[in-house]
């Protein structure tokens, strides 16, 4: 009888010892990196690149799990409800943590309370591109054109509530013009119609728009961030072209479920910052138009998420966009 | 034939014929055929799984392999469509109609052979089309705005009645039901979720594979099990593995027409493949002796199969010339290119000609490999039919479930497929055909999206569908077609009325 009790206590003790994921052993098994978007997109590719770097640093593999749907909410919700042991990561984005909470009438997770931010991965600008047939070569000329002929300009976007859409709405509000928003199912069909002249302009993702700009099929007017982008430094920002204070970025970063031990979060942050510093990663980020990040700590990322959420709450409300 | 083209082709073949690239091409088409044959698992899931592997390959090898998987899957998809009435890809739905009937009559061999031969011919021709006309074709594709797409879809839906070889009323009803099912999801313009019952899994709509596997696959299995042993009958009637001269002669026209239609419609982003196979079938049904359509007419296999292969190859055009993906597989190819640090866009042709021409050359080589692979394998596939059904159907079910799950790693999808299986069984009992449902399911949402976008752009002016030239022409053809189809019925009722 006593032997059984000792045995049971020993087993319980061992279980308790391993249950609390100790930072010394981490990671001991494969890590799941949830990407809440379909495979092949820019976010997915960065996630795979980082995953590979982490796998090289630590032995257990990092496996990318694409869980797309509902604008990123399905993947984000999955991680929010996962065990906070550091083995499930989310590649969250501006959509899942800043826009959707204001855009959707209800989302199944709380972007602040359910997550512990780990590290920002990239901040990329959107770029204002027009079809070459549009007679505007600068942002100023575009605003004048929009004011002279109201209701003639259409801007396409990849979906309602995307940064491409909200950038356009912010532009409308700040410039006092009324460009009509034409939503598409994804950036690709939107770009196709932009090239074909069905819509006149788009606030597109820099990496996808740049090749068409370089080939002369589209004309770039400005970038949407506050600072110029290293990928195309000769292009002015919207803020310095007539709408001071205009600032919109698309960003994404890694998060874990709330309650994950801080030592694990710190280890992840250190390794990710190291991965982002590698030469090939920096080249990749530069090609995307991302600015290099400094002082990338979990606390700064958390503060960033909070400020972005507040900003987008305003933008979404002003635009009147909503998803049920 | 200008010197530039010959030079480019020689560069391309030089790249494609390297031992390494030949190996990757072979690997790609082999893998593609395998997953095409396995019901449920499609090229999207496979390419997504192989993306990390492409990290370590050279760009051209990676693209050759992934492209091989895609058009290889078109070859393989026809195998399941013909043998077990399961469309592996949306474009194989049409092949099920006559292909499966041919299999039931013991003519699975000729059906598979004609499918392979038609696919090879179409693939080769389409490759030449890409080589010669890629940039101008891309410009044509760009001329298709929302109004033009809408009119094209209307034309498609009018032709849906042609898919009915039973009651016309039931076909229309199934098309409408398909349209309704297609509405499930978040509306692109207003952001409101429709028919989603509050479930986030439904907020992006129902996946085509879920509906197809359920309504075609599960339902078929359930009704076969219900019939019991009588299913073994047609296996013994396997008459020959190769098509007869008569078959070849009657299919040759179908193959040519299918290739032409597929090459043209494939360049249109978003809808090329299904629309081309369906349009080819519709055209065939209007030509010549149409009595056997739906009961095992070989032209009904040759035309859609050629069309979908031609469409699959030409759907690379928007990708290679403009950097725009025309379907989810192309989006993954863009991902693969970006992993390699290549920005897809118009400059790929000029800055990296070895990439562009190498891919074109390897497409032709891949098609050759596929026909060499598939023709001898026909005997093996037909043998599969002789496997006792009680062993065959659990494996089919298993692969379907795995395939459906692999779409979004969601168990919900698998349960939904089962629900559609039940629905499909009810359709079988009511003698309603699933093909018009699938067509309505795919075309409906596209139609609605384009209609509303065209109206948004024209600021509410509905005449834009007629004033824009291409759109006007397409609508004109649709209306004419509708009148032609309805006229005999009108005449018949009038005759009947007179007789009384």
What does it look like?
The complex is a heterodimer of chains A (324) and B (500). Chain A is of the alpha/beta class and 324 residues long. Chain A folds into two domains: 28-124 and 249-319, Bordetella uptake gene, domain 1 (D-Maltodextrin-Binding Protein, domain 2); 125-241, D-Maltodextrin-Binding Protein, domain 2, CATH 3.40.190. Chain A is 44% helix and 18% strand. Chain A is built from eleven helices and nine strands. Chain A has helices spanning 2-19, 42-57, 73-80, 94-103, 139-148, 163-175, 187-196, 206-214, 262-277, 279-288, 298-319; strands at residues 31-35, 62-66, 88-93, 115-130, 154-157, 180-183, 201-205, 219-223, 249-257. In chain A, strands 1, 2, 3, 4, 5, 6, 7, 8 and 9 form a nine-stranded mixed beta sheet that branches. In chain A, strand 5, helix 6 and strand 6 form a beta-alpha-beta unit. The longest helix of chain A has 22 residues, at 298-319. Chain A is elongated. Chain B is mostly helical and 500 residues long. Chain B has one domain (3-499). Chain B has 21 helices and two strands. Chain B has helices at residues 3-16, 19-37, 43-54, 59-84, 93-104, 108-142, 146-160, 168-182, 208-227, 245-266, 272-285, 299-314, 316-322, 328-339, 348-351, 353-385, 389-408, 411-430, 434-457, 464-467, 469-499, and strands at residues 185-186, 193-194. A two-stranded antiparallel sheet of chain B has the order 1-2. Chain B is globular, with a radius of gyration of 22 Å. Mean pLDDT of chain B is 82; it is low at 232-236 and 495-500. At the A-B interface, helix 2, strand 2, helix 3, strand 6 and helix 7 of A face helix 3, helix 14 and helix 19 of B.
